[in-house]
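[#protein-structures] MJ: dropping Amino acid ABC transporter permease here for a structure pass
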Amino acid sequence: MALSNRDRARLSLGIQAAIFAGIVVVLIIIIDWTAVQRSFFNLEPVMAMFPEVITVGLWNTVRYTFFGFLFGLIGGTVLALMRIASFPVYRWFATLYIEFFRGIPAILVFIALGFGASLAFGLNLSTLQTASTALAIVGAAYIAETIRAGLQAVPKGQMEAARALGMPAWRAMLTIQIPQAFRIVLPPLTNEAILLTKDSSLIFVVGMAGSAAELTKMGRDGITMYQAGMTPLVVAGVCYLLITVPLSILARRMEERSPTNSSRRRHKKKATASPVSSGVA
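AK: finished. structure tokens for Amino acid ABC transporter permease:
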């Protein structure tokens, strides 16, 4: 007897579930859970990390990310406007900047600011200044492309209508195009904030005082200090999740409420209602 498509799908799902359950059972049997607990969840020795891992490590990570994202957003907006400007020199400069800093590892920027700035220019930057500036430089390149896409997604007819009413180009850009573009790109901008949060860990390459340590630095130091295996890094990872998970949820919520998704939902409702209306008629 031939199976229907629905029966085949159910059979396939059942086989996949059985295979997955079998793998889980095998892992439970062969893994040395005592060694796992001792290496990754040995909490008693690392209790000494608290509350400094929150009040120092987490706080510094949030500070570095906040200022890096803030200045990166400002720089990215300027670069996005230069990228779509009619003056070719602006476009060339913005394109060169974006391609360069998107093409090199972010760690090179941290090293250049941490060591090169003092050697080349005699600048003695603090850890906050180094981390925030490096994150802003790298973040601006990525944010610029995100904002540029948002600016180009705004219907051109709105700008043309504003200009036809006598509104100057700069005012139409500030009051019509940029606000709508930011509404469109809020979800991807939130994802950029998550990436900058993780990139803030690169500040460890330039060294820092204990009061300026971020989560990764405290996790690395905890491995040698508390002799608790990888548990200090697990603690640092959980602290990162306290930042990134709420931002991920926020990004999904904003994406669901974005103008594009709202328009799709309206079209879907109309498409669903049309056959019903036709049937009633």
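MJ: nice. The longest helix spans residues 52-83.
AK: one more thing. The domain at 44-254 is CATH 1.10.3720.10 (MetI-like fold).
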